[in-house]
Design goal:
4 domains, five-stranded mixed β-sheet, 522 residues, Hect, E3 ligase catalytic domain fold, 18 helices, three-stranded mixed β-sheet, 13% strand
Length: 522
């Protein structure tokens, strides 16, 4: 009887498979000699058997068997022939047809007359092994990913540290990855041009081959470089060191998606888009003529005469700066109010602490009374309806006391030192608003405007209307702020009473009292 010797190793690694295949062939040849079997063909294949039509030499063997070139097969184990149901079915069908009269392994013989269930079971076990192996591999990969480890070969810019089993930065190539993202984020270069530029700088494969633009495009889209691993449609936080920031990555994606195309830069005007025309309600725009910036109505409705009036930026700046005069307070005046309210807060907090202590004592007593009632209920010394009524009354009182305690805590926060410090800072910043505005550059002026002002309108080259934003509008509403000498004389006439809590409440000087109220409102 003629036999085909079939040896298979699943590994694709040429260096690892040779010894294993030679070892199989040597052992099976010795087995054939001892049994007196004739080997007419030897096939050795290093292909996985988990998928059908993946092994060309296996297909050749099947063809020879179908053509009656041989009647038997010698293999190491039955799973060397197949690990999938389709190839297993081919083998079993050839045995039922009598094309394969015997399969000889190192352990046993399989004959067509044998119970077919046994061969099916062993073939099924070989297939199940592949399924389990696949699940285990996937489970292992998922576990690695969840821990932040990368299960594959390191991407460009990184190296596999075999000793510590982690990824490290490639010092030779990391600069090219950073360069690629930095250059493309500007939106002034195509991917093809970027690939050329990187090649000129020395960015090539290990063998010196230029990277195609598709490879550069893949790098720019790879989340791995900002620390996130994308695998099988899911994102995992990696424990490798990022090469770029998430912000830079997002900028590059915007350019790739056409959301951040390079545009011609326009001149910045501090007040454009911030003001309105009082006459028609359209926005005030700006333009530069003969080295000066001019502001005028956009005339969006087509019927505004103000459109013909041009207001120079330096003149407009002076007019806006005068508005901040309304926010100025004497520094000593601010300190007086601050100290007075601090003193008032101390007295208030003392009262609040006294109230809180009383409330907490009463709540503690109610808790003890409720426990005593529970003991009486368990001892059955009083009717249950009497105890229930008393418990309800205590519960109602307890709820009311908790509300009062909450109010007391909120009041204490209101009179905290930190609150008054923040309020004092607002006053001092308002004092410097005019000076800061006049000394600021065009960008900072816009920031100051947006922080302090709103509803600013222009008519006949003058400021027609405006509002300060809160809390600055409250400061502007305080009248006669400059008359500080009168207030100072009133304070100095009775220095002992100047910081008492009732001093401000009965203060005859309205501005001081109003300002104190503002301190309390912050």
């Amino acid at each position: 009887m003629r036999y085909i010797l079939y040896a298979r190793k699943s590994s694709e690694d040429k260096g690892r498979q040779i010894l294993s295949l030679e070892s199989q062939i040597a052992e099976m040849t010795r087995l054939a000699d001892s049994l007196g079997l004739e080997i007419v063909k030897v096939f050795q294949e290093s292909k996985s058997a988990k998928k059908p039509d993946n092994r060309p030499l296996f297909a050749q063997m099947i063809k020879l068997l179908e053509q009656d070139e041989a009647e038997g097969v010698i293999c190491w184990k039955i799973d060397r022939l197949s690990r999938n149901p389709i190839d297993s079915g081919k083998i079993q069908w050839l045995m039922q047809q009598g094309k394969i009269k015997v399969i000889q392994t190192m352990e046993k013989q399989y004959l067509p007359s044998d119970n077919v269930i046994l061969l099916n079971v062993e073939s099924g076990m070989a297939n199940q092994y592949i399924l389990d192996l696949s699940k285990n591999v996937k489970r292992g990969i998922k576990t690695k990913l969840e821990k932040g480890d990368y299960p594959n070969r390191a991407p460009i810019g990184y190296l596999n540290d075999i000793t510590n089993k982690k990824l490290i930065i490639d010092p030779e190539r990391v600069k090219f990855i950073k360069m690629a993202f930095d250059l493309y984020a500007k939106g002034t270069i195509s991917i093809k041009e970027l690939a050329e530029e990187l090649y000129k700088k020395g960015f090539t494969s290990r063998s010196g081959i230029k990277y195609h633009k598709s490879k550069v495009h893949f790098i720019l889209q790879n989340t791995f470089y900002h620390g996130v691993i994308l695998m099988h449609g899911k994102y995992y936080q990696g424990n490798h060191e990022p090469i770029i920031s998430k912000t830079l990555y997002d900028e590059v994606q915007n350019v790739l998606n056409g959301k951040n195309k390079a545009r011609r830069k326009h001149k910045f005007f501090s007040y454009r888009g911030f003001m309105y025309c009082e006459n028609c309600g359209c926005l005030i725009t700006a333009d530069q003529k003969k080295g000066h910036n001019y502001y005028y109505c956009t005339n969006g409705k087509g019927n505004c005469e103000e459109h013909k009036e041009y207001l120079r930026e330096d003149k407009l700046t002076e007019k806006i700066a005068t508005l901040f005069e309304k926010l100025k307070f004497d520094n000593e005046f601010i300190e007086l109010c601050y100290q007075a309210d601090m003193e008032k807060a101390k007295f208030n907090n003392t009262d609040i602490d006294r109230i809180k202590e009383s409330l907490e004592k009463r709540l503690l007593l109610i808790g003890k009374q409720k426990l005593s009632l529970l003991d009486l209920e368990l001892a059955q010394k009083f009717p249950s309806e009497v105890i229930e009524a008393k418990m309800t009354a205590l519960g109602k009182e307890e709820a009311g006391l908790n509300v009062e305690l909450k109010k007391a805590n909120e009041a204490k926060v209101k009179y905290s030192v930190r609150t008054f410090e923040q309020t004092k800072k607002v006053f001092l910043e308002a004092n410097l608003a005019q000076k800061d505005f006049l000394e600021a550059d065009e960008f900072k002026r816009r920031i100051i405007l947006e922080k302090l002002l709103s509803n600013l309108s222009i008519q006949n080259k003058e400021i027609a209307n405006f509002e300060f934003k809160m809390p600055y509008q409250q400061l502007a509403n305080v009248a006669d702020k400059a008359d500080f000498e009168l207030m100072r004389r009133g304070r100095d006439s009775n220095p002992r009473d100047s910081l008492k809590p009732n001093t401000l409440a009965g203060c005859p000087f309205q501005p001081l009292r109003h300002l104190s109220i503002i301190f309390c409102l912050f």
